[in-house]
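Field: COMPLEX_INPUT
Field: COMPONENT_COUNT = two
Field: RESIDUE_TOTAL = 270
Field: MODE = joint
Values follow.
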Amino acid sequence: MSSAISPHSARSDPGIDRRSLMAGTAAGLLAAGLPLPAAADTPELAQLIARVTEGAVPERARIKLEIPALAENGNAVDTRISVDSPMTEADHVRWIHLIAEKNPFPDMARFHLSRRAGRADVSTTLRIAQSQKVAAVAALSDGRFLLAEADIVVTLSACIDGG
Amino acid sequence: MSFNARITLPAQAKAGEIVEIKVLTRHPMDRGGQSDGKGGTVPRKILNRLTATYAGETIFRLDMHTGVAANPFVSFTTRAIETGDIVFEWREDGGATYTRTARLTVT
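Field: COMPLEX_OUTPUT
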């Protein structure tokens, strides 16, 4: 079941008009050349993570999220996620879920692995709407979860109209 | 427009070896809301699922949303079990499905 990926899983409250916030943020970042502060998870990201773990607190270990720190083109951002797991019947990764905190639809993709995967090692190409935090959540066969996050700065946003 | 996908995997593998499979699909993955150049917007139409089946089991499934880039790329791994076809099936918004196969030779 992947209800978090359904077309109805858009952000629940639009809040500030996204376009004006994005334009302001992009302009501000370019003008000032400032990196994003490496802060703790925002409440929104924590909520998005909790939605896929159904409230369980994930462990920040054994999972690696590789994504560039700076992407010139948010329309095509390569990412790779690997989990240190034996991938046996008794101990394996069931799925890996990707979240982009500030995308219009934050749930981006879910990789479902089989016990015949051999390794938990997947990659794909993403659309990143603006500079933000990306999170990868892995679900293990014993019911626990792993979490890795990365900050990414995007100079060309993926979601500007006409782009 | 016909459906195009490029599947890359080793020509052959030893039984039990882990092989990496790469899939690159041609698809605009229209996320909806983009201008169509004539004052309207292009409706959302993406590939929302890719399933791979091999040696009697589903070996991989990717659920995709609008956050996956156009011309989606994915790579994953699987163990070589026996010589046979890996069957890839894509599902598109609206229910259309596309199927391609790639042969894995296992020595």
